[in-house]
Amino acid sequence: MNPGVAVPEVVPAVSERRRFPRYRYSVPIIVRPTNGPESQGMSVEISECGLSAVTGAALMVGDSVELEPIGGRSVTAIIRRRFGRFCGFEFMNLSVEQAGKIREMCRMLPQYRSKTLDLWQP
Fold first, then answer.
1. Which of 11, 44, 96, 105 has the most CB atoms in a 10 Å sphere around its CB?
2. Which CATH class is domain 21-107?
């Protein structure tokens, strides 16, 4: 290597940094913020540790919410990402039973390809 020559840092693709693969999952959900009124949402994708959804709720990164139905009942989640009305939620304190239901459901879903957003493909 040449001293004094900057070498760009190689950053892994988002999909390579994820703990679990994501799957297409488009269903109506209810979003209940701890500090605001509940609202309707539509999930986009899911993994064993979280999901992304479009919602009309006024949410901020770091907010805690309840999402329902996920794995057959409600789940507590933290907002990790937000872009307009699109939010990324991380599940918190899943029961073993609920985590198992989500894992089994994911196995039956088509994988989500984030480069194409996969929103409009059948």
1. 44
2. mainly beta
